[in-house]
Specification:
Blueprint: H1 4-22, H2 26-45, H3 51-59, E1 68-77, E2 80-86, E3 92-94, E4 97-99, H4 106-118, E5 120-132, E6 146-158, E7 166-172, H5 187-198, E8 205-206
Parallel strand pairs: 1-6, 5-8
Antiparallel strand pairs: 1-2, 1-4, 2-3, 2-7, 5-6
Helix pairs in contact: 1-2, 2-3
Length: about 210
């Protein structure tokens, strides 16, 4: 679970963002900006991120505050799972995926991400899991609230190919899972997806 200070700071940030979206009162604008500044200061004091960077990220967000959506593709071949080596996280491994894009459905986003990061073409066939990142043991904590959507994808073509985000592409059986980018996927989640692979009638997992 995320630490209490992060939950409080994240909620203050959301209140400020939503308040700035709706208010027309200049004094309320000042107050909501002050709340945002306090939230950024809390996040900075408890992390290695400079406050100005936190504020820059926060100020880029507008409208009613809602969780961000991360999509991940789960692709099997011969009882092995597809993983990509993530350059941005010390070359640790993860399921291909990333932020869902505007004007794409979740399925379209994950099919694109799988192709861009691994070179393989795939087709979404099932939602395996919908998780709240804060409840899944991901580290380090993140300043925004995130929902993680995992999709089972059928392999339909392509070949292994790296990208500007990935340095390697490979399939692994469940007994040889490499060091994972735990910010993106956990070992427990990978094992859960192997369970789904063996038992395709399992229901979608959530929370």
């Amino acid at each position: 679970m995320d630490p209490h200070w992060l939950k409080w700071a994240r909620e203050l940030m959301a209140i400020a963002q939503t308040g700035l979206h709706y208010t027309e009162n200049k004094y309320d604008v000042e107050r909501f900006n002050q709340i945002r500044h306090i939230a950024a200061e809390i996040m900075s004091m408890h992390s290695s991120v400079e406050m100005e960077k936190v504020l820059t990220l926060a100020q880029a967000e507008s409208g009613y505050a809602t969780p961000k959506v991360d999509v991940r593709g789960v692709v099997f071949k011969d009882d092995k799972i597809l993983l990509v080596r993530e350059i941005m996280d010390n070359n640790r491994w993860t399921l291909p995926g990333g932020w869902a894009d505007v004007n794409e459905s979740p399925a379209e986003s994950v099919e694109r991400e799988v192709f861009e990061e691994s070179g393989f073409k795939s087709k979404v066939v099932k939602v395996l899991a919908v998780y709240d990142r804060t409840k899944q043991g991901h580290v380090p904590p993140y300043m925004f609230h995130i929902y993680k959507l995992f999709f089972l994808c059928q392999l339909i073509g392509g070949e292994a190919n790296t990208s500007i985000e990935t340095s390697d592409v490979a399939f692994f059986n469940e007994h040889e899972i490499p060091e994972l980018s735990v910010a993106r996927v956990t070992y427990q989640q990978i094992m859960k997806f192997f369970d789904h692979h063996r038992n395709p009638h399992l229901p979608t997992d959530f929370d």
